[in-house]
Design a protein that fits this description.
This protein is mainly β and 128 residues long. It has one domain: SH3 type barrels, CATH 2.30.30. 9% of the residues lie in helices and 44% in strands. It has a 6-stranded antiparallel beta sheet, with no helix packed on it. A hairpin with a 5-residue loop joins strand 1 and strand 2. The chain starts with 8 loop residues before the first helix and ends in a 5-residue tail after the last strand.
Length: 128
């Protein structure tokens, strides 16, 4: 009765993909672009998948790179301030691109919510 449970090729591929997904070293003050897969239904009821990005500044990073680690990304769109919390190990996240790095002295940049008037100084980062 003891059967060998073999893994399907799809499951092996998914597991290998999740292990190889590399999370860049993210810090508060970085302007990042988070690419996320979105599933939509059209009028006919067919499911369509596309990639949408959200670009903004990281104002908080919580729980490091562990399973429950998150980043809070904030941007201003048409005068409306928008914040999104992204779990780092979310399977729908395709990639995270680092655009620029600001010089900050805090681990959490919540002071940006209360109308911080000055611009943050940009720090030069080495790009590939």
């Amino acid at each position: 009765m003891a059967e060998d449970k073999k893994e399907s090729p799809k499951n092996k591929e998914k597991r290998a993909e999740s292990k190889t997904k590399k999370i860049p070293d993210l810090k508060p003050g970085m302007t990042v672009r988070v690419y996320q897969k979105i599933k939509e239904l059209n009028i006919k009821g067919e499911e369509k998948e596309r990639i949408q990005y959200f670009e903004g500044m990281i104002i908080a990073k919580k729980h490091g790179k562990e399973a429950g680690g998150t980043i809070t990304v904030r941007k201003i769109s048409n005068g409306v301030e928008v914040e999104k919390i992204f779990p780092l190990n979310l399977p729908t996240i395709e990639k995270i691109e680092i655009k620029k790095q600001a010089e900050v002295r805090r681990a959490k940049l919540y002071f940006l919510k209360r109308g911080f008037k000055k611009r943050l100084k940009e720090k030069v980062i080495a790009t590939k």
